[in-house]
Amino acid sequence: IKIKSLSSDSHVRMLEDCVQETIHEHNKLAANSDHLMQIQKCELVLIHTYPVGEDSLVSDRPKKELSPVLTSEVHSVRAGRHLATKLNVLVQQHFDLASTTITNIPMKEEQHANTSANYDVELLHHKEAHVDFLKSGDNHIGGNSREGTFKETVTLKWCTPRTNSVELHYCTGAYRISPVDVNSRPSSCLTNFLLNGRSVLLEQPRKSGSKVISHMLSSHGGEIFLHVLSSSRSILEDPPSISEGCGGRVTDYRITDFGEFMRENRLTPFLEPRYKIDGSLEIPLERAKDQLEKHTRYWPMIISQTTIFNMQAVVPLASVIVKEAMTDEDVLNCQKTIYNLVDMERKNDPLPISTVGTRGKGPKRDEQYRIMWNELETLVRAHINNSDKHQRVLECLMACRSKPPEEEERKKRGRKREDKEDKSEKLGKDYESDKPWQESERLKGLLDREKEDLAEAEVIKDSPDSPEPPNKKPLITMDEMPTVEKAKGPMSLLSLWSNRINTANSRKHQEFIGRLNSVNNKAELYQHLKEENGF
Length: 535
Fold this sequence. Notes:
Blueprint: E1 2-4, H1 9-31, E2 42-50, E3 61-65, E4 70-78, H2 81-95, E5 97-108, E6 116-126, H3 131-136, E7 141-144, E8 152-158, E9 171-176, E10 178-179, H4 185-195, E11 200-204, E12 212-220, E13 223-229, H5 255-264, E14 274-275, E15 281-282, H6 284-295, H7 315-320, H8 328-347, H9 365-381, H10 388-401, H11 405-462, H12 493-506, H13 513-516, H14 527-532
Helix pairs in contact: 8-10, 9-10, 11-12
């Protein structure tokens, strides 16, 4: 590192040539010496300083390789405090350091011992202490670290210390720290506080939510370390449930299928080089990414979102359609699978349609097969650009989907018949529920009318001046009542009531012999005349 006031860019090139020639001479001398070592790598940093208020005559230049041994870079900076800040930045770049600013540190005022104010202290440490921030994408960058500084710092908030024990926290790393402003009073107070055996917890500043303690400051053997605390789930805990992930409360993931998917796409050592069709060398990593892309062009993650991947009959097609090149045997197996699905549809076999979140019986059988065919077409179309044989599989699928007109007519008639049966079944249920009550009311009205007629006849008969009773229509007995057609299924209330009345009436009188010997309630008269005449 050379700090100098340079006159022009040509002055910079002259210094670079001088350093390069010196290194060359030294290496030539060290090659013939037993106690000298050659210079294998040298980084030349030229810092051009110029007075405040003037313009720089030398332009900045990033790192440039002058030879296999020498690299050079140029920085222009104003003299004074700007030079110290620039050196601070260069030190961080060279030693892979990062900056952390601790905010809201309570310190007592020198003038007023009973009051305290909050101060900020900037610390330098290895950048590995921020690796968790970089992984999560949350850098907590609070802007420039100090006035006039061109580097960024991570801001952490002071927590009131409650413990002196370091072993109570699960640490993933510890890195030495150094205050940027060593001689300032806040840095001195913080250093003395930690060297007395105290520990300070640091939390990530958040606008909302619970606070996250990510780091801790503590001293060991007279040196201060920044400890990185594990803010994520510990490896000692049980693994999280799959429902705690991005999907929320989704529980029907295709976990078994995903395990099989991982087994089919494992990475293996690539021993022999392979070449593409155009003659270029095939890169193993690119080939693995290409295969992974083919296998995931259509791969539903949830069981309820797919039909074909829940059917064993589709496995032969789904396993070979993702190949980059198919054989004639593979095409034949895919065609057989499609024909088997057509046969299943003709037999009206049920499909594993998920009914999660739906009410009732779910979609009809024709709708289930329409969903299945659409999903199968989506899977095949995702791979038709792989080869011509993939196109043949799609052509077979489309030919089987386009049914002849008589097949479509038969399907329509079947759908109409199913709708008619559903409607009649619904109406029948409504009628059966109303019919027993209607029949029981009618029967009750007949019995009440019969009782009134009997009472009226008794009154007329007992009175002394009563005329002859008027001719009335014969009463309808229970046996002559039209029999109610028995309904299928459980016995109705009317049937139970009719059976009870018939049984009670049969015990009160002796049945007419003609009715006993009748056929279909029809008795033949004058049978003896036919017997006497020899008929």
